[in-house]
Amino acid sequence: MKNLARLRSFIQDMTRLAERHGADEQRMLDECEKLLRGLIAQDDWLPEEFAGPSPEGYRQYLLHCDPMERFSVVSFVWMPGQKTPIHDHTVWGLVGVMRGEETCEEYSQELKATGRHPVRRGQVDRVSPRIGDIHVVSNDGNEVAVSIHVYGANIGAVRRHTYDPATGAPRAFVSGYANTTVPNLWDRSARP
Ligand code: FE
Predict the structure, then answer these.
(1) What is the DSSP track for the chain?
(2) Distance from Cα 1 to the centre of ligand 1, integer Å
(3) How far is the CA of 182 from the centre of ligand 1 (A)?
(4) Which of 35, 71, 43 lies closest to 144, judged by CA?
């Protein structure tokens, strides 16, 4: 039995945060990072169906979207060797690694590669148009990687961009989600 109460209280805390500080990106990043570190510190709550890898490519599963679309919580699942295209987000976002390890390659607004760094289990990475929004995320390890992401919008519905690595040409995309149902946070009859 997965401890969904952890996700439920994370979402409650995030909702309070969005109400109080939703317009203050820096504050949202700082406070949300603390909450996200707590959420990923204990890997006992993510239901299997939102942690399943696919040989066809990395998967993004919506775990929760705020009713006012002020934030969304998504699980990303990568098999070894899988990677994203070069892409942007257009809103703030946090990436917290819960299983395995990921590699983040950063790009400038002019599409110059500016560095790469590992994001290890328990660590949280940041993106936003203000602090650097374009990157590639990959799983260079040899086990499945799972990260929990929080964005300042319903990220699967945001019109954003991938970039051609050779020419830098942007291409509009809307990512959507791999799942059609979300975790049921509200059946409190089963208490772990
Ligand atoms: Fe990203």
Answers:
(1) ---THHHHHHHHHHHHHHHHHTT-HHHHHHHHHHHHHHHHHS-S-S-GGGS---TTS-EEEEEEE-TTSS-EEEEEEE-TT-BPPEE--SS-EEEEEEES-EEEEEE-TT--EEEEEEE-TT-EEEEBTTTB-EEEEE--SSS-EEEEEEESS-GGG--EEEE-TTT--EEEE----S-SS-------S---
(2) 30
(3) 21
(4) 43
Distance 89 CA to ligand 1 centre (A): 6
pTM: 0.96
Per-residue pLDDT of 32-48, as tens digits, reads 999 999 999 999 999 99
pLDDT at 17: 98
CB 74 within 8 A of CB 60: yes
Distance CA 107, CA 88 (A): 10
Reply yes or no on whether the pLDDT at 190 is more than 80: no
Structure tokens at 46: 């993510």
> Domains plus CATH for the chain?
4-174 (2.60.120.10)
Distance from residue 117's CA to the centre of ligand 1 (Å): 14
